[in-house]
Amino acid sequence: MKTIAFIGLGNMGGPMAANLLKAGYTVQVFDLVPEALQTLQDQGASAASSPEQAVAGADVVISMLPAGKHVAGLYLGNGGQPGLLESVAPGTLILDCSTIDGETVQQVAGACAEIGLDMLDAPVSGGVAAAQAGTLTFMCGGSADAFLRAEPILSAMGKRIFHAGNHGAGQVAKMCNNMLLAIHMIGTSEALKMGANCGLDPKILSEIMLNSSGRNWSLELYNPFPGVMDSPASRGYAPGFMVDLMAKDLGLAVDNAKTTGSRIPLGELAAALYQEKQAVGDGRKDFSSILELFEPA
Ligand code: NAD
């Protein structure tokens, strides 16, 4: 069985690393937060005191970090610190599962290619519940050979593993998906709030729309109205998937639209609404808390 180094044990990375342990892999973990390391150590992982220690003897490196600057800093180095690529063994497979910008993907993939390493951008969809259940969707960018090597490992953490195309293609797929997610989360919130303002029970309204043409993922599995189901909304909007991360993803979509000349009027509006939510100090709340913007004036 392979040895996997896993860097970034947050809301997503923690349960993903736990599923690799359950599948029988040896997992060497690193995070900046000691509590996150301890949680994985309790489940059987070896806790490393640095990323370099985590990759010692590893066949595969998986990273699950907040944004492009963290991924570039890890693999390529920053502030005079050497990057992790200087410490990995020849033949190591590099899998970055973070949601990041295409430019960083190309930089890391290029640096990997220079030293003969296979690398995939492999962002995920499904949220914390799917990370825990091992049912994530992976969208991969990179060579067909690298994809074949990665597939069995990703299958321990996800149910559907897609090869979207070359380096960066996984991130484009993820960006499109999350823009759509933000739009239907906002739409679902508006509809539920307006119905409640008219005196409807949000549980009954949700049931009606789930059996009508308004049905969507946010309504079905991640209802933003408190008390309708066991979702972050019913737990005081504890994340889950933070407003800050959704705002980052929408920023990536807006930047991409500028570069490619794509028209995304709803994506731009969604980005502005998530920025408004950040501006009131709610960046660390779950992204379904966007419903709170729709209180009647
Ligand atoms: P998070 O903030 O909960 O976790 C990130 C972790 O990375 C933290 O534990 C942090 O300490 C660690 N970290 C940061 N810099 C580090 C470094 N240099 N070395 C080691 N550890 C470092 O974020 P998350 O919700 O787990 O999201 C991770 C990525 O997955 C993001 O790119 C996000 O957009 C994406 N994503 C999240 C969800 C979700 O529902 N939360 C769903 C799909 C994709």
From TrEMBL:
PROSITE patterns: 3_HYDROXYISOBUT_DH. It catalyses: 3-hydroxy-2-methylpropanoate + NAD(+) = 2-methyl-3-oxopropanoate + NADH + H(+). Pathway: Amino-acid degradation; L-valine degradation. Residues 168-293 form the 3-hydroxyisobutyrate dehydrogenase-like NAD-binding domain. Its EC number is 1.1.1.31. It comes from the Bacteria. Gene3D superfamilies: N-(1-d-carboxylethyl)-l-norvaline Dehydrogenase, domain 2, NAD(P)-binding Rossmann-like Domain. Keywords: Branched-chain amino acid catabolism, NAD, Oxidoreductase. This is 3-hydroxyisobutyrate dehydrogenase. Residues 3-165 form the 6-phosphogluconate dehydrogenase NADP-binding domain. Belongs to the HIBADH-related family. SUPFAM superfamilies: 6-phosphogluconate dehydrogenase C-terminal domain-like, NAD(P)-binding Rossmann-fold domains. It is an enzyme of class 1 (oxidoreductase).
